[in-house]
């Protein structure tokens, strides 16, 4: 029983999901209180947290060469966000979002490349990291489409911007469902060991 509840068994995904839930609920409550409130700084901190979390997550999965590359990408991403963006602004800085999704895409593709290039008898879908990487890739591709023209649509076509926001919420739900599948895969692998 204690093994199932062990956070390291699920690579701390439960902790990440808890922080994600807190961020989304807190943002939603702020929006209910005041729809005009700007909470960009909340998401800036969350994005940095996400980069650091998934850096550790993938670092444990990567082989030697990719570990070094992962650390370099993480370092550059964090330094760029802290010193070359409006990190402490109440308005959301789309450059931070683009850095986050680029980080996700690069790390996910590196994991897929490593997984495919190393012969493994097990099914790729049995690997919990498959579900995490797939979820991050899917989320990143949609978020790129949403964040890039976000400020243009805010001025020119708010109904389409709202459509993109709703689509992002659906993508978020699908991503969290994939994370849940990953947690189930971790639980199943713990039962086998």
- The counted number of beta strands is 0
Number of helices: 8
Q: Biggest sheet, in brief?
A: none
Radius of gyration: 18 Å
Q: Provide the succession of SSEs.
A: HHHHHHHH
Q: How widely separated are the two ends?
A: 13 Å
Gross morphology is globular
Uncertain residue ranges = 1-5
Q: Into which percentage range does the β-strand content fall?
A: under 5%
Structural class: mainly alpha
DSSP helix fraction: over 70%
Round the mean pLDDT to the nearest integer and report it.
88
Would you spell out the secondary-structure blueprint of this structure?
Blueprint: H1 2-5, H2 13-33, H3 40-61, H4 64-84, H5 94-117, H6 128-147, H7 150-156, H8 158-192
Helix pairs in contact: 2-3, 3-4, 3-5, 4-5, 5-6, 6-8, 7-8
Can you walk me through this structure?
80% of the residues lie in helices and 0% in strands. It has eight helices and no strands. Helix 2 runs antiparallel to helix 3, helix 3 runs antiparallel to helix 4 and helix 5 packs antiparallel against helix 6. The protein is globular, with a radius of gyration of 18 Å. The two termini are 13 Å apart.
Comma- or semicolon-separated keywords:
single chain, 193 residues, mainly alpha, 80% helix
Quick description:
The protein has 193 residues and is an all-alpha fold. It is built from eight helices and no strands.
């Amino acid at each position: 029983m204690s093994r199932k509840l062990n956070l390291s068994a699920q690579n701390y995904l439960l902790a990440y999901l808890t922080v994600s839930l807190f961020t989304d609920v807190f943002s939603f409550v702020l929006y209910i209180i005041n729809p005009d409130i700007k909470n960009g700084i909340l998401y800036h901190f969350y994005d940095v947290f996400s980069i650091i979390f998934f850096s550790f997550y993938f670092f444990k999965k990567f082989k030697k060469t990719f570990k070094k590359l992962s650390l370099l990408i993480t370092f550059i991403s964090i330094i760029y966000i802290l010193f070359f963006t409006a990190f402490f602004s109440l308005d959301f800085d789309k450059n931070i979002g683009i850095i986050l999704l680029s980080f996700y895409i690069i790390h996910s593709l590196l994991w897929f490349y490593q997984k495919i290039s190393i012969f493994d008898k097990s099914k790729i879908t049995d690997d919990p990291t498959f579900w995490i990487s797939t979820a991050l890739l899917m989320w990143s591709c949609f978020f790129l489409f949403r964040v890039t023209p976000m400020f243009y649509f805010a001025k020119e076509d708010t109904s389409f911007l709202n459509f993109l926001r709703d689509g992002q919420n659906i993508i978020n739900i699908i991503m969290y469902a994939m994370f849940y599948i990953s947690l189930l895969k971790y639980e199943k692998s713990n039962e086998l060991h």
